C-alpha cells in the first residue's frame, strides 16, 4: 500500500533531491520500522540492509528506467519524441547541468535510449500485431506422470529414454520431433539457442544478444522449430522442451512477460491450425537422460560461440536486467558506504549479502521475526541496550548481575529460569559463541526469546 502511494509518477515529481523526497523517505523508514519491529534507535542503514528495501530515490530511478525501456519499444511514442527533443536542445550545452539538476529523469532516459538499437521496435504491443484469434490461442502440453517425476532421481539413467518413448508412444508415432533448448553461461557473453530433430538429422544453432534471457532463448528455439515445420509443410510435429516457464506462458491467455516471441509462437500455432498441421508440446526435466534433449542442450551451449547470428531483436522486458543491476549496485554502494559510519555491530557479525531478507522463505510468526530483527540489529529492550542509548541510568539486571544482555537473560538470569529452563538444557552442548550474535534464525533460539516477550514487555 505504501509503495503504491509513493510510486505515482515519481520520475516527474521526486526523482531529484528535494523536500518531497526527504519526507517520503522518512515515511518509508517509519513503515519499515513498524512493520519489522525495529526500535527507534536502530540505524536506518541496518533496517534497509535487513529488509533489502532500496532507498526511494534508487527505486524511483529503477521504475523510471523500466518505463522508458517500455515506451522506447513503441515506434513514434509521443513521450519518447518529446524527451528526445528536450535532450537534443540541451545536450553538450551549458543547459545540460540545469536539466540534470531539475529533471534528472531525462538523464535516465538518455541512458536507456542508448539500448534502442538492440530491442524490437513495434507500432504497438506485439500481441496486437497479429490476429485476434492468435491472442486467444492457448496451448496445452504433455509431461511425464507425477509419480515418475516425483521419483525421477531414483530411476537409473539408462531407463529414462525407454520410459519416455513408451509413455509418449502414440504422440511420437508418425511425427517429426524437434528438441529445443537455450543456454546462458553468464551476463557478458552471447546466449545460445538450438533446435535438433533426429529424424531429419537437423540442427539449428543461434547466437543471441548477451542481454537475452534464458526464457527468450528457449522461446526463440521453439519459434524457429515451428517456422521450419510450417515452411516445409510438415503435417505432424512434436516439440520437446525443458522450459516449463515458456510452455506455461503459451498455456495461459496472458503474456505476463510481454515477450514478443510468445506472441509470434501463438501466431504460428494459429497458422498451423489453418494448415491442418498437428502441433504437440511435451515438457521434460532438463539433464534427465533423454537423448534428444541432451543433444539440444549441447548444441545450445555450442551456439554461444559458434551459432549463426539471425534477425533476433531483444525483447524490451529482457533489458529490465540493466536497471535491475544498476539498482543492486547503487544499493550495495549505499550499504558499504554507510556501514563504516553506523551499524558496526550488525555489519561485522550478522550482515550477509543477499537479494532477499533473511526471513523471506521462513514460516515464522511476526513476533519471531521481529524478535530476531531486534537481536540481530543489537537494539532490543534489555538494560544493556537501553543503557547504551542513554535511555536508562544503569545496565544491570534486576537479579543483581552487572549487565542485562541477551546472553545473561537466556543462559544465566535466575529470574528468567522458569521460562527458559528446558531450553538451557537443550543448549548445554552448544557453544554460546555460535548463538550470539544470532546469525542464523533457529527455533531453539527463538522460542525462549518469544516466550519472554509474551510474558513481559520489558524483555527484548
UniProtKB/TrEMBL annotation:
<dbReference type="InterPro" id="IPR053151">
    <property type="entry name" value="RNase_H-like"/>
</dbReference>
<protein>
    <recommendedName>
        <fullName>RNase H type-1 domain-containing protein</fullName>
    </recommendedName>
</protein>
<dbReference type="InterPro" id="IPR002156">
    <property type="entry name" value="RNaseH_domain"/>
</dbReference>
<feature type="domain" description="RNase H type-1">
    <location>
        <begin position="172"/>
        <end position="305"/>
    </location>
</feature>
<dbReference type="Pfam" id="PF00075">
    <property type="entry name" value="RNase_H"/>
</dbReference>
<dbReference type="GO" id="GO:0004523">
    <property type="term" value="F:RNA-DNA hybrid ribonuclease activity"/>
</dbReference>
<dbReference type="InterPro" id="IPR036397">
    <property type="entry name" value="RNaseH_sf"/>
</dbReference>
<dbReference type="InterPro" id="IPR012337">
    <property type="entry name" value="RNaseH-like_sf"/>
</dbReference>
<dbReference type="GO" id="GO:0003676">
    <property type="term" value="F:nucleic acid binding"/>
</dbReference>
Amino acid at each position: 500500500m505504501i509503495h503504491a502511494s509513493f510510486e505515482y509518477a515519481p520520475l516527474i515529481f521526486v526523482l531529484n533531491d528535494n523536500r518531497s523526497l526527504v519526507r517520503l523517505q522518512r515515511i518509508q523508514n517509519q513503515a519499515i520500522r513498524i512493520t519489522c519491529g525495529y526500535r527507534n534507535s536502530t540505524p536506518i542503514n541496518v533496517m534497509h540492509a535487513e529488509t533489502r528495501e532500496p532507498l526511494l530515490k534508487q527505486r524511483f530511478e529503477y521504475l523510471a528506467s523500466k518505463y522508458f525501456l517500455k515506451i522506447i519499444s513503441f515506434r513514434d511514442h509521443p513521450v519518447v519524441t518529446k524527451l528526445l527533443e528536450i535532450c537534443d536542445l540541451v545536450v553538450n550545452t551549458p543547459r545540460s547541468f540545469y536539466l540534470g539538476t531539475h529533471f534528472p529523469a531525462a538523464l535516465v532516459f538518455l541512458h536507456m535510449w542508448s539500448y534502442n538499437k538492440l530491442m524490437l521496435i513495434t507500432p504497438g504491443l506485439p500481441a496486437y500485431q497479429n490476429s485476434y484469434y492468435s491472442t486467444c490461442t492457448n496451448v496445452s502440453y504433455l509431461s511425464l506422470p507425477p509419480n515418475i517425476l516425483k521419483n525421477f532421481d531414483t530411476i537409473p539413467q539408462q531407463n529414462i529414454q525407454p520410459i519416455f518413448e513408451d509413455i509418449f508412444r502414440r504422440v511420437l508415432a508418425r511425427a517429426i520431433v524437434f528438441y529445443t533448448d537455450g543456454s546462458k553461461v553468464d551476463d557478458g557473453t552471447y546466449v545460445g539457442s538450438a533446435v535438433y530433430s533426429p529424424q531429419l538429422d537437423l540442427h539449428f544453432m543461434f547466437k543471441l544478444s548477451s542481454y537475452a534471457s534464458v526464457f527468450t532463448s528457449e522461446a526463440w528455439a521453439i519459434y524457429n522449430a515451428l517456422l521450419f515445420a510450417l515452411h516445409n509443410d510438415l503435417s505432424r510435429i512434436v516439440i520437446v522442451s525443458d522450459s516449463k516457464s515458456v510452455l506455461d506462458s503459451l498455456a495461459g491467455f496472458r503474456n505476463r512477460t510481454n515477450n514478443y516471441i510468445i506472441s509470434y509462437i501463438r501466431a504460428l500455432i494459429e497458422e498451423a491450425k489453418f494448415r491442418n498441421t498437428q502441433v504437440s508440446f511435451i515438457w521434460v526435466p532438463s539433464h534427465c537422460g533423454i537423448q534428444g534433449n541432451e543433444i539440444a542442450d549441447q548444441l545450445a551451449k555450442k551456439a554461444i560461440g559458434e551459432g549463426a547470428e539471425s534477425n533476433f531483436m531483444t525483447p524490451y522486458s529482457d533489458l529490465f536486467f540493466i536497471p535491475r543491476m544498476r539498482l543492486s549496485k547503487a544499493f550495495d554502494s549505499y550499504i558499504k558506504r554507510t556501514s563504516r559510519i553506523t551499524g558496526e555491530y550488525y555489519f561485522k557479525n550478522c550482515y550477509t549479502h543477499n537479494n532477499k531478507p533473511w526471513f523471506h522463505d521462513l514460516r515464522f510468526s511476526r513476533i519471531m521475526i521481529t524478535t530476531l530483527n531486534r537481536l540481530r540489529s543489537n537494539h532490543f529492550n534489555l538494560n544493556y541496550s537501553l543503557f547504551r542509548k542513554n535511555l536508562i541510568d544503569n545496565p544491570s539486571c534486576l537479579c543483581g548481575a552487572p549487565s542485562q544482555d541477551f546472553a545473561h537473560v537466556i543462559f544465566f538470569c535466575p529470574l528468567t529460569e522458569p521460562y527458559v529452563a528446558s531450553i538451557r538444557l537443550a543448549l548445554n552442548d552448544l557453544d554460546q559463541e555460535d548463538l550470539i550474535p544470532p546469525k542464523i534464525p533457529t527455533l531453539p533460539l527463538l522460542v525462549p526469546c518469544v516466550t519472554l516477550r509474551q510474558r513481559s514487555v520489558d524483555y527484548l
